[in-house]
């Protein structure tokens, strides 16, 4: 049985109390497979009803509203690509319907990147997904062209959906998703492991096989600012929807927060708990979700000044294949890839009164809420 617990104090305060994340559900039938020990972006969701995770050469789909249902969204075990008998999925991406960048909510697609430089794109407007064939192609034909990360965003001027493909061949490529045409290719001195675009679409954050992170012009790819502070290669990056906060995570087991209004020095440096950060996500109210390689997802209120009082740890056993933030941060989904106790975990944000009473579901009795709260803060063996 899953072993997990939560620790830490409140993330934010309100007139009625404080918020923090609590266990909501666990579904052992949904188990992602991690294909690379450093790349952990194998979970993607546009909303609670469209959750996707990678399992080798297949991408599975489920709904948190009906988790017993599991379908194959994309079967890439036998592709039409000439140089790839099957596609090992390395990363997934889909536009979030609750993102603050709402201009592309009508673009419902799922993107996957492969170990040999492949990509697959599925139109999610067709129903059912299992009867639809994805569009496939190559991002790179380089022998070391692993697709490491995909970032979807609306183009600044047209609002049309674009995708930024990070690659191990030292390049970042931009795709017009509607036509599946690559419009720009930017070259760098090192492998690119992750990217994040600013909310206004003008700047892009890059991390890769370098101790430094880089701010680039999103349209030309030119490096404008070098961010120093890490002592290891970077694998995670995020830009807050407010536009003011940037986060980078590296193999030095540190997460660095930056103020986008002042790149001269880091705003704050956070130590991870067990291992290095592999995935970073901001909620709509600037809480930073830090997914480590194993066992721990932390939530940090980046607006606070007291590190210890503004951090919560969600602990469990297992390798983390991916994390996604739903409904702007009201819920967090975690793909646990452990062969024995793995599955799909969800945690929800609840408001707790200053008297300690849990008020997340008004329809529950006080006794039921108290029992659930006690259960969710114990360690299950």
Shape: globular
CATH topology of the domain at 33-187: Methylamine Dehydrogenase, Chain H
Query: How many distinct helices?
Result: 1
Number of strands: 29
Give me the CATH architecture of the domain at 33-187, please: 7 Propeller
Provide a quick synopsis of the model.
With 381 residues, the protein is mainly beta. It has a domain at 33-187: YVTN repeat-like/Quinoprotein amine dehydrogenase (Methylamine Dehydrogenase, Chain H, 7 Propeller).
Report on the architecture of this protein.
3% of the residues lie in helices and 50% in strands. By secondary structure, the protein is an all-beta fold. It has a domain at 33-187: 7 Propeller (Methylamine Dehydrogenase, Chain H). The strands form six sheets. Strands 1, 2, 3, 24, 25, 26, 27, 28 and 29 form a nine-stranded antiparallel β-sheet that branches. A four-stranded antiparallel β-sheet has the order 4-5-6-7, with no helix packed on it. It has a four-stranded antiparallel β-sheet with strand order 8-9-10-11, with no helix packed on it. A hairpin with a 5-residue loop joins strand 16 and strand 17. The longest helix is centred in the last third of the chain and has 11 residues, at 366-376. It is globular. Residues 1-17 and 353-381 have low confidence and may be disordered. WD repeats lie at residues 227-262. Keywords: Repeat, WD repeat. This is WD40-repeat-containing domain protein. InterPro entries: WD40/YVTN_repeat-like_dom_sf, WD40_repeat_CS, WD40_repeat_dom_sf, WD40_rpt. It comes from Neohortaea acidophila.
